[in-house]
Amino acid sequence: MRVMKQFSEVRGLIFDMDGVLWRGGKLLPGVRTTFSLLRARQIPFVLATNNATQTFEEVRSRMDEAGVSIEQNEVLTSALGTAIHLKQHIPEGARVYAVGGTALHEALEGAGFSVQDSSDDVAAVVVGMDWSLTWEKLAEASYALMAGAFFMGTNPDVSFPTERGLAPGNGAILAALEAATGREAVIFGKPEPHLFVEALQRIGTPKTHTVAVGDRLETDILGGARAGLPTALVLTGVTTAEQVAQSDLQPDWVFENLEELSRELAAVT
Ligand SMILES: [Mg+2]
Questions:
Q1: Quick one: CATH architecture of 88-187?
Q2: Is 248 a catalytic residue?
Q3: Distance from the CA of 204 to the center of ligand 1, in angstroms?
Q4: How many A from CA of 49 to the centre of ligand 1?
Q5: Mean pLDDT throughout 171-193?
Q6: Superfamily (CATH H level) for 7-50+191-266
Q7: pLDDT tens-digit readout, 140-173
Q8: What is the pLDDT of residues 7-63, one digit of tens each?
């Protein structure tokens, strides 16, 4: 049984971005209303995404378009979170090998790790979406994994939509390495709870009153529930109302969009 009876009792929020705030290049309805209300009520939030290639600057400029100004600590990508989480598994300042983009490299360096070009003697292999993936990179990663390096992935998404159809995502890169080495990666992103746990730590609000908001049942809602948070699904992204009706996994709230969420948030109880 959930502790929060009304959505307006919420003390903190952890928002997914794609399918919640925007879809493709288009801002979704209710972003401005929701975030001005949150600012007015001083309700803290984190924008948390599995996307390891997204940077804070990109998120900030998109939110700026909606008239919402956000701070660095209000954005948590799986690349940033992975770099922080990695500190629990390997020594500070350790050498790591990364298969991933600039955002992942920067996040790892920013957390004090030393990102190497070769995988010789690295403590960990970290894998995020890599737009210039090559066989050589997979081979480098495999050598270190076979030698026992810690294996971590930013997010498990096997595919993502493009204009021409579904393209391989980071989960597919991880699957290639897992097939080659027999090793299994520790995953930071949703539906694992770590992204929510890290976001919750940032805002410091009680778990019982911090709502995970997302557009996908099997990642956002499952991950939020695993982290012990109340959950809200918005129908502006991947999961449809029909899919919710047929699912065993039920969010605590279902909203058409952020506009409806902001009305519930504003509701005086
Ligand atoms: Mg989403």
A1: 3-Layer(aba) Sandwich (3.40)
A2: no
A3: 23
A4: 8
A5: 98
A6: HAD superfamily/HAD-like (3.40.50.1000)
A7: 999 999 999 999 999 999 988 788 988 999 999 9
A8: 999 999 999 999 999 998 899 999 999 999 999 999 999 999 999 999 999 999 999
Q: How far is the CA of 26 from the centre of ligand 1 (A)?
A: 14
> Ligand 1 (ion): which residues have CB within 5 A?
16, 18-19, 215, 237
Q: Is 48 helix (H, G, I), strand (E, B) or coil?
A: strand
Using a cut of 0.85, tell me whether the model's pTM lies above it: yes
Measured in Å, residue 29 CA sits from the centre of ligand 1 at: 15
Q: How many CA atoms lie within 13 A of 16 on its CB side?
A: 31
Q: Where in the chain is the domain with CATH 3.40.50.1000?
A: 7-50+191-266, 88-187
